[in-house]
Amino acid sequence: MIIAVDGPAASGKGTLAAGLARHYGLPCLDTGLLYRAVGHAVEAHEDAPDFEARAIAAAQGLDTGHLDNPELTTARAGSLASKVAVIGPVRRALFAFQRDFALQPGGAVLDGRDIGTVICPEADVKLFIDADSKARMERRARQLEARGVKVDRYALYHQIEERDARDRANPNGGFYPAKDAHLLDTTLLDIEAALRAAVAIVDGAMARKGRPLPKADRP
Ligand SMILES: Nc1ncnc2c1ncn2[C@@H]1O[C@H](COP(=O)(O)OP(=O)(O)O)[C@@H](O)[C@H]1O
Ligand SMILES: Nc1ccn([C@@H]2O[C@H](COP(=O)(O)OP(=O)(O)O)[C@@H](O)[C@H]2O)c(=O)n1
Asked: String of b and e for 30-53 (b: at least 16 CB within 10 Å)?
């Protein structure tokens, strides 16, 4: 079973993807880390005339074994990620790794922006996660504060809005809900309630297809 989880920044898609992966016993890939890793690799050259060429080379040579670098989780890395994400050849260079991950035997859960539209249009279940901008900003602020980062909420709000706008306008992107995506707004749901809602969507979608579900790890 392949589950695609897309949505804007800090909507909770990574948390839900990880929860669904645990629930169904599937491997999980946070595809945003690939773009963050490319952005991080060319950080020092952000204003250089050859920024684009460097980003393409970084994407083509990306070592996907080092996606657990904590520096990839910063707001700066997120912002750089959305700058390299508009470069078509960067997206093409990252495509095969994501596609192979999705198609591994037994299936997978992937989260990002274009999983249901570009990476895996044939996914069994597609979720498009959203939450209002203020809730998303507050979640990201608390996440950063829990890591000891001092947060300016006004600046963070605008940073997230700017990144979302760049992502939505990305001509090479695919960041929109697929026609067959299930929309899940988590503004008023805590993490547990959001995961219950996501599991109900996946169970319902698979039952309608008459497809058996992988073993759930519920008691
Ligand atoms: N439904 C929710 N209610 C409250 N906090 C949430 C919810 N979903 C996720 N979070 C928290 O918000 C932060 C951002 O979630 P994350 O899953 O990383 O978002 P995304 O992958 O969309 O950027 C994390 O600290 C996470 O624990
Ligand atoms: N499948 C994806 C995943 C991320 N991205 C880009 O990478 C950036 C960082 O993605 P992320 O998922 O780590 O960001 P958050 O939503 O966690 O803040 C996004 O703002 C997009 O520009 C993308 O273009 N396509």
From this structure: bbbbbbbbbbbbbeeeeeeeeebe
